[in-house]
Design the sequence.
């Protein structure tokens, strides 16, 4: 496994439509493993392939809605699509490709995603709250969309402080 460089806003790879994955081979598995290492090192809750310069439909989302005694785990999604969404949430959203910036973004509160796993098998997965937000955010990356273009407004430090309370960890996708 190796760390990959995370591209930042302004790089063209973050503005492109990504192509489907057609080969579920070792190269894909290496990309997924590298992305997982990169995501954990960056302390994010999601990462999309274009963020490491690869224009393919591959994303990782960290499932954080787990029982207290269990660890968060990474969901690998290849060629994902949202097939169901419901509810609504509004709150701060960030991105590892837009460091230090948070915007107020509305998202569905619940989504169901259909995707392939690293071996090409189709599966469905659901997410609520932060996980639903991460699914939406990461899938947007595959269309070249950054949260900054969806945000109602970019949040000031003061506003963030009021929202999170002082000293709380802020999570970036
Ligand atoms: Co992002």
Sequence:
């Amino acid at each position: 496994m190796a760390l990959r460089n995370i591209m930042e806003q302004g790089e063209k790879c973050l503005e492109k439509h990504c192509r489907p994955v057609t080969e579920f081979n070792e190269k894909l598995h290496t990309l997924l493993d590298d992305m997982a290492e990169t995501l954990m090192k960056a302390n994010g809750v999601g990462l999309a392939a274009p963020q490491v310069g690869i224009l393919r439909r591959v994303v990782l989302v960290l499932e954080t809605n787990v029982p207290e005694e269990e660890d968060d785990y990474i969901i690998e999604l290849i060629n994902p699509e949202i097939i169901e969404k419901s509810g609504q949430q509004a709150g701060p959203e960030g991105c590892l490709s837009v460091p230090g910036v948070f915007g107020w973004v509305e998202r569905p509160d619940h989504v169901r995603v259909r995707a392939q796993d690293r071996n090409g098998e189709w599966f469905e997965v659901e997410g609520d709250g932060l996980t639903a937000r991460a699914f939406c955010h990461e899938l947007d990356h595959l269309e070249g969309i950054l949260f900054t273009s969806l945000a109602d407004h970019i949040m000031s430090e003061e506003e963030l402080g009021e929202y999170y309370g002082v000293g709380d960890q802020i999570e970036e996708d």
